[in-house]
Amino acid sequence: MSIYQRALTHGVQRLITKPRLALPVLITLSLTLAAVLTVVAMSSNLIFKPLPDIKDEQNIYHVDRQVQVSEDFKISIINRHGAAEFADYYKQIGEVATLHARANFVQVNDQNLAITKLTASNNFQTVIANTPLLIGEMPNLSNQEGAVWISESLWRNAFASSANVVGRQLELEGRQLIIRGVFVDFRSFYSMDDIVSQQTWQFFDLSSHLADTPSNQFGGSNKLFIKTQNQVFTEEMLTQFWQHLFAKYETELASYKGMLEQMGTSSKVELYRAHLMKNQNTLIIFLFISVSALLFMASLNLFNLFLSHYQQREQELATHLCLGSPRKRLFIIAFLENLPLFLISALVGLFACAWIIRALPIISGGNIEMLSLVNLDLVTVGIAIFIVLIINAVFSLSAIFQCDSTALNQHINTSNKGVNAGKMSPLTKALFIAQLSSAALIMTGTALLAEATYNKVNVDLGFTPGNTMMVKVDFEGQGDPLPSEEQLRRAEEQRLHLEILDIKAQLSSAAQNVQPQLKILDSQSEPFGSNMMISMNFDEDTNEQITYMYKNIGADYVDAFGLKLLAGRNITAEEQTSLAQVAIINEPLALQLSKDGTIESAIGKQIGTLQIIGVIADHYSLVSKGRGYPTLMSPIINTANTGVFIMMQLPEGQTFKQSELETAMLSAHPKIKQLKFDSLASIWDNHIEQDRIRFYFISGLCVLTLLLAFVGSNAMAVGFSELKRFELAIRMATGATRVSLLKHTLQSITPLLLIAAGIAIALSSIGYGVLQQNHSSLPALSWTALGLFGFALLAIVLSAITWVVWRIINADPMRALREL
Amino acid sequence: MKTLVTINNINKIYQQGQVNTHALQAVSLQIQEGEFIAISGPSGCGKSTLLSILGLLDTASDGQYVLADIDTKTLNVDQRSQVRNKHIGYVFQSFNLIDSLTVFENVALPLEHRGASKKDIKSAVEKQLAAVNMTGRLDHTPSQLSGGQQQRVAIARALVGEPDLLLVDEPTGNLDSQNGDAVMQLLLELNRQGTTIIMVTHDERYSRMAKRQIRLFDGKVLVEQQEAVA
Fold first, then answer.
1. Hey, which bits of chain B come out as E strands?
2. Using the beta-carbon criterion (under 8 Å), do B94 and A6 form an inter-chain contact?
3. Which of the residue ranges A189-193, A227-231, A776-780 has the most confident prediction, judged by mean pLDDT?
4. Do the beta carbons of residue A566 and residue A587 sit within 8 Å?
5. pLDDT tens across A308-338, in order?
6. Do the beta carbons of residue B52 and residue B24 sit within 8 Å?
7. For the ABC transporter domain, which residue ranges apply (chain B) (predicted)?
């Protein structure tokens, strides 16, 4: 067996014979690698690889025109008519297609299946998607009406991949649709809802919407794409189209244009992939920096462990050198010895990475887009191997060069002249300081970010959501246009209001039969503002256009959600029933309308036809996290814009019997098409989901940092104690107790620990300062947090050292003397 | 006879803080091929320091050291390793056998570092182990051997590369008198076969067995005498 083969064999044997070296390396390196590789896999698949089911993505642009509702909230104003106009305007430059995706259900053979409902312009499959038609015919003007195409997964699950599926029917939103074909599952698209592979496709002719009346509604949910012939599409081009549109429909869109100008609009043009990725590039970069820092710290820990291992083997290395081995050969021997351990770590890391990737959709709670595209590819495997080879090379090289010519004589030729006093090498000390510094920096950053995120999650809402369930009711005839003539419109509004009251009364009664404790609210809205509309009016007193959030409420709104009435009075039950033209407003709107800076002066003013009768305190809303968004609340229902909702409350601790309620309510009125249940708790949970995940992630990083600091200190303590073991043995032989040995060892390491901690805290505060200068989103440095976590770090390090020293003291230190 | 080792005005100063310790002071020696030299002296006189410098395990603070016509002053770390491998065999007082390797593998190390073929290594190792009467223990590890056996393996390892110079540090220091005598007989036999040996010992009895004896005191050559082999 050659010297190299022997080194490799020894490396394999060491996996079992040296568990104190092998296990920390295996656990630390593989787990850290798993985190790094997951991010590498995400970047590799999400940023660099071509999208699998999109044709020529480099030439496809997602375009959007948005209105700034509030500082935190923008909405799209592109509707089908706008999209059709856009397609017509830019027909020389490229082809335009639209897509709309929402979660829904289909009924097939009495089976209710969750699907993603895709509604697209009929050229989407030829222009954008690369999802071949498996069976049936492509959509066109003659076959798309009353028809549906399904995805391969839905075909397999609902129709057992039957070849005769074309021509069969399924029920979607109460309509029977004929299946015209089956497409391969589509994955690369954006949806506000969870994307599933069971999909339905419905197509429409975009050009037919050129005949639509220009709309003045916000909230367009169609995604608009243009595919150019290798020509860059710019935001200026989109703005130019918008100017053309307002010029073409100058009369029809005059007030709409004024409103948009008042609120502020912006054009957004991005490549198809960028549109899918949203802000994920930043997230991936943040993740990459975090895990790289962890890998760096883990490597420092392991480096110390290896130095300690090779320090114990310096005599062996010195013997090799003495017998004529060049250091290059010793490096190769060390490299080969370590190779099995590092390769196994890479393997375990890859395995763990594969599991993390599988668990990512659950871990991320659906907040990271396109995770279905992430897989363990060759690039990731290659990077795993590259990382461990580099770490191995650096470790082996440093360990060998530690044992230089001066050490050679010292270790090999002691000639029974006693044992050299154990001293840590400067490299070990430097590593320890670097370890503590990086740990302190990561801890400071993560702790401050965690605190900031925690504050976002645990915000004072300014109201009590209570145990509230919101049920969106879709019924026949809803959303039909109202007559334009004032009197007819009023009459229709009144009729609609009564109809809605009737529907709500019957549904409420059905619900209360299921759960008698249910309290049905008169209000249609809730304080988060998930079902509101944005309106605008001219105020003659201030001579300003006022943009505000409009909510339909009842007399019970203020009390049901614990809102504070600051001035005036609440709406009465009679006003609610008679649709009185009264409204209450929030404090920001009152101040905006105020003549003298007091909220009281807003009472009695008119906004449109509504008279202000009261002012409530401002509170948190989904539109404006920073609060301060003007809001107007009135009993007047505008179902065309906000829909019909039933708000129900239960005492805290009681559970809504959702499926029983749904069944009972669906059959309570013949006009009911669909119900959608959403609790305020789940609305809030969804709203803060990203912050919550970020909080968990950052807290996890914090804990992992402490764990790595513990493991690193452990390695340093092992090395230190090994160096001191002769001294310990001699002290014990001359009568020292174990406690006094522990005390002595801790005393000798304390100065280094304190110096290292001081340097670590100084470096981390400087490092954090530099980071903060470059990233203003980072919270300000808190010395309290730094001190607190620095103390925690020191405590962890000290306990790690104490634990190791105590273990070594108890593990027969006298053996060292017998070995002499 | 050809001169194998020449050292001129070698000084070795150890510096620890403000204190300078002169381990060797202006030591000059010429050693011919085939000589058997014993270096003795009281503890701290510089014996082991001199041996370390001769074995290229340490460098002199100043002075010249020429081994087999090679001026060692200009050598870098790897070149010194090569010179050690080719020209020097070193027997340590504490043997310094590698515990994780067998007797065969320990002895084979110098040849492996030289890049010799497996066949050459096998024959050379077996020959050398036979010369020290250790053929039956090829697959043993050092911890399975007695002190005397370990010393013989260490000598075999030092000789397997057929060095010009054999440096032996207190060869009997860790052995009982019976094993010590046996090792000395082995060294004398090697010298008779032509191996140049420099041995550090504090044992006068063994020192007198060498052809030439050098006594050091406070880092200086105190006495140098040529004697007949006992």
1. 3-16, 19-32, 36-40, 62-67, 70-71, 88-91, 165-169, 196-200, 212-217, 220-226
2. no
3. A227-231
4. yes
5. 788 777 778 888 888 888 888 888 998 999 9
6. no
7. 5-228
Question: Rounded CA gap, A765 and A778, in Å?
Answer: 13
Q: What is the pLDDT of residues A514-534, one digit of tens each?
A: 999 999 988 888 888 877 777
Q: Across the interface, which of B52, B94, B114 has its CB nearest the CB of A324?
A: B114
CB contact (8 A) between residue B85 and residue A324: yes
Instruction: Kindly state the tokens that stand for A286.
Output: 């943040």
Interface A-B: count of C-beta contacts within 8 A: 87
**Considering Cα of A69, then A75, then A79, then A83, what sign does the dihedral take?**
positive
**Eight-state DSSP code of residue B213:** E
Quick one: how many helices (H) and strands (E) in chain A? 26, 22
Give me A457's structure tokens.
Answer: 């999650």
Q: What is the distance in angstroms between the Cα of A760 and the nearest Cα belonging to chain B?
A: 29
* Residue B141 in tokens: 């590890």
DSSP alpha helix (H) spans, B96-212:
103-114, 118-131, 147-159, 177-192, 204-207
Measuring CA to CA, which residue among A513, A526, A512, A589 is closest to residue A557?
A526
Q: How far apart are CA A470 and CA A124, in angstroms?
A: 35
Residue ranges per domain, chain A?
Answer: 80-214+217-252, 426-460+688-820, 467-687
Give, in degrees to the nearest 5, the angle at Cα A275 between A271 and A279: 120
How far away is chain A from the Cα of B128, in angstroms, using its nearest Cα? 16
- Burial string for B65-104 (b: 16+ CB within 10 Å, else e) reads bbbbebebeebeeeebbbbbbbbbbbbbbbbbbbebbbbb
Asked if residues A161 and A134 have their Cβ atoms less than 8 Å apart, the reply is: no
The DSSP result for A674-712, as a single string, is EEEEEEHHHHHHHHTHHHHHHHHHHHHHHHHHHHHHHHH
Q: Which pLDDT value is given to residue A533?
A: 76
Q: By C-alpha distance, which of A369, A358, A411, A416 is closest to A193?
A: A369
- Inter-chain residue contact B170 with A415, CB threshold 8 Å: yes
Residue type, A584: I
Residue listed under structure tokens 């000395």: B184
Contact A416 B58 (CB under 8 A): no
Residues A37, A649: Cα–Cα separation, whole Å: 47
Tokens 């993740």 found at:
A287
The confidence score (pLDDT) of residue A729 equals 65
Tokens 């010029």: give the residue.
A247
* Residues counted in chain B: 230
Tell me the two tokens of residue A333: 């021997």
Pairing of strands A610-616, A565-568: antiparallel
Closest partner CB to B93 (pick from A324, A329, A416):
A416
Please enumerate in sequence order all residues whose Cβ is within 8 A of that of A521, keeping only pairs 6 or more positions apart, or say none.
A554, A556, A557, A560, A646, A647, A648, A649
Q: Model pTM?
A: 0.63
Q: In chain A, positions 8-47, which contact chain B (CB-CB < 8 Å)?
A: 10
The architecture in CATH of the region B35-59+76-226 reads 3-Layer(aba) Sandwich (3.40)
CB contact under 8 A, A325 and B93: no
Nearest to A673 by CA among A191, A219, A144, A171: A171
Residue B228 backbone zone (phi > 0: left; psi -120 to 50: alpha; other: beta): beta
d(CA A99, CA A335): 55
Long-range contacts of residues A376-380, Cβ cutoff 8 Å, at least 24 apart: A376/A37, A376/A41, A376/A350, A377/A41, A377/A44, A377/A45, A377/A49, A379/A40, A379/A44, A380/A37, A380/A40, A380/A41, A380/A44, A380/A350, A380/A353
Domain locations in chain B as residue ranges: 35-59+76-226
Nearest to A528 by CA among A23, A37, A72, A42: A72
Contact A326 B52 (CB under 8 A): no
